[in-house]
Design goal:
alpha+beta, globular
């Protein structure tokens, strides 16, 4: 009987350790970006030409063959994920006129670092562009205790700008 209670307690602790905060569902984010008039999703294939640059930006291979995005009138929206410390952070990123319009953490699964979801942090990305060396045109201030989450969001911002420049119908 005692073992049973120990197992129950350990299972409850494991659930707590696997924090998962859903701030906005990805489809609701896309709906908001396009004011309810959502364009048909498009696919960007990760070709052998794109893969090395994507690997350079992320520091690892993407491990998917294609990425879904939504685009209209030079604006594209991306739902991307990157590992913070141990878990993926699902992020919505909007690019308009080759500049970041919005970065929003949609689902956060880590135990620490969730401060990256707040506008005081994400607003730093607004208006950012990508240099030829695939770096942002500005420094992003970190958050103590959230270093890996900050790095993950910065990688995703760089990736979204890069992908936008290779998406169908963009310059």
């Amino acid at each position: 009987m005692r073992r049973f209670f120990i197992i129950i307690i350990l299972c409850m602790m494991a659930q707590t350790a696997m924090a998962r905060d859903v701030y906005q569902q990805p489809q609701a984010f896309i709906n908001d970006v396009f004011n309810g008039n959502v364009p048909k999703p498009k696919m960007l294939w990760v070709t052998k030409e794109l893969a090395p640059d994507i690997k350079e930006i992320l520091g690892h291979e993407l491990r998917v063959l294609r990425l879904r995005y939504w685009q209209r009138d030079g604006k594209s929206a991306w739902i991307l994920e990157e590992i913070g410390k141990e878990q993926p952070i699902t992020t919505g990123i909007v690019i308009n006129d080759n500049r970041i319009e919005q970065v929003k953490v949609l689902i956060y699964r880590e135990n620490r670092g969730m401060e990256v979801r707040y506008p005081f942090f994400t607003d730093q990305y607004k208006g950012a562009t990508l240099h030829k060396n695939k770096q942002l045109d500005r420094n992003i201030d970190g958050i103590s205790g959230a270093t890996l989450s900050v790095r993950a969001l910065t990688k995703l911002a760089r990736l979204a700008l890069y992908l936008h420049n290779h998406a169908d119908g963009t310059p």
